[in-house]
């Protein structure tokens, strides 16, 4: 059961002018599942993306990187679930190209104008024939109001589709922002999540798309973790269709840039947090805030050490305030000159430890009360400086083991 | 159920002349448990130790480090389970001193001649009164042949006591080596394991004890991981009672030094591997061998990334050859210039991937056959150089979650 997350109401997802989406059942891995999604972009759209830092990155990730770098105008994206096309070598690259070339043919585009994405099992050959056979149906299905369908179409072990939408004012003009994401396991984005797509009709200078995607990922997908496993397929793509009447945003440091970034960040953060709320087996949503660091990097390092500790995660699952496990994770996070005598720990409003030892006023029943909540904030103060960072994670439950022991069966 | 590990046969554990061991029930956390162990060392023993790198190291760890540094001859060690005395601040240091001072009084030693050790729950005050009250019984129990009792006396979530013993020839003289260890969770030693004690009657120059302890830890405890959680209390102590007739070993690079090191390493490795075999919830024992690295460090880095991946560990639990997860972990291990096209993967004798892609000859049933075994070797070749390293780990099962969700209850 996801933590405080329900399926999106399709009527609350605003279409983004210039984007049409179609979904089909191609039988990639299982029959009767929406497993093939296409995004069709009107001429004039700008696209930016950030991708996994995993050195074993999937074939489609390599192709997306090359095509965005080459700068041909992107007009379509094709996403399959059920097969990640990762760990597939040269043959995998050829298969990813066959799929995107087939879509380019259908749409009368150049091959370099299509971005392919895959998610699913690693190290199995992509079933090109079935995917190509499904493309006409996906294209025929394309509509501007199909965001909820797309959110469903890219799910793998997700239990709930993830889509969010917002309106914002940029340069005095109302613009629309809508996005979808997927992912529930192998989630420790190191650039972006498994798959995230965010579109706006705002006018944005093409050169700004890559830094915009990076800034959005840094504030959202690069702040979440479920199991510490950085995927081979993480991809986060941002589209500006340039259909709105605003003066093109050319800097993130301008008033317009800040307004757009802030509104898009809200949606990106909701998409990223939705992945954690629907984390495999998750029963709790946990924000880990590390204050008082010398640098933002060391704050994140400590926050991730806590977020990845199986012992901390199982204690949250059990609602057991065995909070010394958090201190242990702080201690092994890798800050060589950390002084344990300066460290404080809070659980929501409850002060658990001060100066590296148990707070004399701390009562187990107070810790217990917070641990029972579905949403919890862990606050660690390192007592070394002024930097602060927050990451979001979930607990580790029996269902995580069940889901991942049974995933392929 | 531990993986191919049974309780030691007390008759096969050789006493080490100069070491007596006593165990008592002090009721530290639960009644009716052997939870207090003392080691009494004859005059003339040399002692070396290595300790956790966790910056939140426990109070007894801080005291042990100081006392070994100060160099007063160590004559006794006291170990309690049920309480780690970590995350306890200044008060914890005072309590650890009270316990070891009480033992020094009983034995008419100086305070600096006693080393204290604790293992158990973090961030709870050490019950000094109950431990001190138990000391006379532990001292009265002391016998040279109590190694099996001691192995039982230091257990926490261990299901099986861990003790190994060997005879070796050093400088033409037969010497004895016997050791015990404990630990099943919060195991990713970063110097040593939760607790390991290894003694020999060989004569060893006192100045060699610290490098000897380090060399032994590096070849054994620093090569195992269960859950990636580096403990606050990891301590590995090596004792040479200097009772044997060999000429004192003064260098690890001499013939005698190599003979002693090799024999002690065998025992230390058995003790370290026993911890993995009895890892919380473990059903499989997995050796991860990484070859073809540029440096030993990067081989270890990749091996630990695989060993810590929850997805890899749950696949082993399920006997599911979902082996792309191993490639993904190789990819995110942090080697920036890794070339995926050079990577090979074997599971025992089965070649799974070559040149970064699935081996065309690989058949799922071959992977399945190996995955069903209780002991498995994963071999990754990075294709970058000549370095090679091996670490040992276990799978991640439902029981790991159960044990750690219920540990304190």
UniProtKB/TrEMBL annotation, chains A, B:
It holds the Pfam family ArgJ. It is found in: Cytoplasm. CDD domains: OAT. One of its GO terms (molecular function) is L-glutamate N-acetyltransferase activity, acting on acetyl-L-ornithine as donor. The keyword Acyltransferase applies. Pathway: Amino-acid biosynthesis; L-arginine biosynthesis; L-ornithine and N-acetyl-L-glutamate from L-glutamate and N(2)-acetyl-L-ornithine (cyclic): step 1/1; Amino-acid biosynthesis; L-arginine biosynthesis; N(2)-acetyl-L-ornithine from L-glutamate: step 1/4. The record marks 192-193 as: Cleavage. Its EC number is 2.3.1.35, 2.3.1.1. It catalyses: N(2)-acetyl-L-ornithine + L-glutamate = N-acetyl-L-glutamate + L-ornithine; L-glutamate + acetyl-CoA = N-acetyl-L-glutamate + CoA + H(+). InterPro entries: Arg_biosynth_ArgJ, ArgJ-like_dom_sf, ArgJ_beta_C. The record marks 119-120 as: Involved in the stabilization of negative charge on the oxyanion by the formation of the oxyanion hole. The active site is at residue 193. Keywords: Acyltransferase, Amino-acid biosynthesis, Arginine biosynthesis, Autocatalytic cleavage, Cytoplasm, Multifunctional enzyme, Transferase. Substrate binds at residues 156, 182, 193, 280, 404, 409. Catalyzes two activities which are involved in the cyclic version of arginine biosynthesis: the synthesis of N-acetylglutamate from glutamate and acetyl-CoA as the acetyl donor, and of ornithine by transacetylation between N(2)-acetylornithine and glutamate. Belongs to the ArgJ family. HAMAP family: ArgJ (MF_01106). Heterotetramer of two alpha and two beta chains. This is Arginine biosynthesis bifunctional protein ArgJ. It comes from Ottowia flava. The lineage of its organism: Bacteria, Pseudomonadati, Pseudomonadota, Betaproteobacteria, Burkholderiales.
């Amino acid at each position: 059961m996801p933590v405080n997350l329900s399926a999106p109401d399709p009527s609350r997802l605003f279409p983004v002018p210039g984007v049409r989406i179609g979904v089909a059942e191609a039988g990639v891995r299982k029959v009767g599942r929406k497993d093939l999604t296409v995004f069709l972009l009107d001429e004039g759209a700008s696209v930016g993306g950030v991708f996994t830092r995993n050195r074993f990155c999937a074939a489609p990730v390599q192709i997306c990187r090359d095509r965005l770098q080459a700068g041909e105008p992107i007009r379509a994206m094709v996403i399959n679930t059920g097969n990640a096309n990762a760990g597939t070598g040269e043959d995998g690259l050829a298969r990813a190209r066959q799929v995107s070339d087939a879509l380019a043919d259908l749409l009368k585009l150049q091959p370099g104008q299509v971005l392919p994405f895959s998610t699913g099992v690693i190290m199995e050959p992509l079933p090109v024939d079935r995917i190509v056979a499904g493309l006409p149906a996906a294209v025929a299905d394309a509509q501007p109001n199909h965001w909820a369908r797309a959110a469903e179409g890219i799910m793998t072990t997700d239990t709930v589709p993830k889509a969010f939408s917002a309106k914002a004012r940029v340069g005095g003009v109302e613009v629309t922002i809508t996005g979808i994401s997927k992912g529930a396991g192998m989630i420790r984005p190191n650039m972006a999540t498994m798959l995230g797509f965010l579109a706006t009709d705002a006018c944005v200078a093409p050169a700004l798309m890559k830094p915009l995607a990076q800034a959005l990922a840094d504030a959202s997908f690069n702040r979440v973790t479920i199991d510490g496993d950085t995927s081979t397929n993480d991809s986060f793509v941002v589209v500006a269709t340039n259909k709105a009447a605003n003066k093109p945003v050319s800097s993130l440091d301008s008033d317009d840039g800040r307004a757009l970034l802030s509104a898009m960040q809200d949606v990106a953060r909701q998409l990223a947090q939705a992945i954690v709320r629907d984390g495999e087996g998750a029963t709790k949503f946990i924000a880990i805030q590390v204050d008082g660091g010398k640098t933002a990097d060391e704050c994140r390092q400590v926050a991730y050490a806590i977020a990845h500790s199986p012992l901390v995660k199982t204690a949250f699952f059990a609602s057991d305030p065995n909070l010394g496990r958090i201190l242990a994770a702080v201690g092994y996070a890798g800050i060589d000159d950390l002084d344990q005598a300066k460290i404080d720990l809070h659980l929501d409003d409850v002060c658990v430890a001060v100066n590296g030892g148990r707070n004399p006023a701390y009562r187990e029943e107070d810790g217990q009360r917070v641990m029972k909540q579905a949403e919890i904030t862990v606050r660690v103060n390192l007592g070394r400086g002024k930097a602060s960072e927050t990451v979001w994670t979930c607990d580790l439950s029996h269902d995580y083991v069940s889901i991942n022991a049974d995933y392929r069966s």
